[in-house]
Automatic annotation (TrEMBL):
<keyword id="KW-0812">Transmembrane</keyword>
<keyword id="KW-1133">Transmembrane helix</keyword>
<keyword id="KW-0472">Membrane</keyword>
<dbReference type="InterPro" id="IPR027381">
    <property type="entry name" value="LytR/CpsA/Psr_C"/>
</dbReference>
<feature type="transmembrane region" description="Helical">
    <location>
        <begin position="24"/>
        <end position="43"/>
    </location>
</feature>
<dbReference type="Pfam" id="PF13399">
    <property type="entry name" value="LytR_C"/>
</dbReference>
<protein>
    <submittedName>
        <fullName>LytR C-terminal domain-containing protein</fullName>
    </submittedName>
</protein>
<feature type="domain" description="LytR/CpsA/Psr regulator C-terminal">
    <location>
        <begin position="83"/>
        <end position="174"/>
    </location>
</feature>
Length: 204
């Protein structure tokens, strides 16, 4: 080309428009943002699919121990009627009560010892249905068992008393032993094993 449009020097005019740096920077930020969102979403998906294992672990750690029932050993110390020796003593003015009561107790499986009138310290002084008297150990053994046959009778222990036999002292309010069926039911409830917490078992 010649004339006034002659090109001089070693630099030539650019034929393409100049790129704007602002657009490049914006595109870079957008890419970083998209990648960040994708990464966060991936982590959330991983948590969703692995959350069941974490929940199971948390549930196992939070298991609540529950008590398992077992028989109470306390019921085992109560004697059976055949292991209880009963002295039947009459503290009333009515004759024949001691022997009649002793015969009925024998039919119900109790051992019968002495059958007689009550000693002076109790004669005509027992106002209720009767009194059950025995050594200190009998308060948690023989007396409750014998008491099923005469509800309402007073239970009393004599610390100085020796031996295992117990006394049934007939009082002025005595009208007879409890109905046998009722006495058997009371005895069954008394000697039945009780359910008590024994061992803890984790329940999830």
């Amino acid at each position: 080309m010649g004339g006034q449009y002659k090109i001089t020097g070693d630099k030539y005019p650019r034929m393409r428009p100049v790129r704007r740096r602002g657009r490049v920077a914006f595109a870079a930020v957008a890419c970083v943002t998209v990648l960040g969102v994708l990464g966060w979403g991936t982590l959330q998906l991983i948590d969703v699919f692995t959350g069941g294992d974490k929940a199971s672990a948390a549930g196992a750690a939070g298991c609540v121990p529950t008590a398992r029932a077992s028989a109470s050993p306390a019921a085992a110390v109560l004697p059976k009627p055949g292991q209880v020796t009963v002295n039947v003593l009459n503290a009333t003015t009515r004759s024949g009560l001691a022997q009649k009561t002793a015969d009925e107790l024998k039919k119900r499986g109790f051992r019968v010892g002495e059958v007689s009138n009550a000693p002076k310290e109790y004669d005509k002084k027992v106002t209720g249905t009767g009194m059950l008297l025995g050594p200190a150990a009998s308060l948690k053994g023989a007396l409750p068992v014998l008491g099923t046959q005469l509800p309402g009778a007073e239970h009393r222990a004599d610390a100085a008393r020796e031996g295992a036999a117990v006394d049934l002292i007939i009082g002025n309010g005595f009208k007879g032993l409890a109905n046998r069926a009722d006495a058997d039911t009371a005895l069954a409830k008394l000697t039945a094993p009780l359910s008590t917490p024994a061992a803890e078992k984790k329940s999830c």
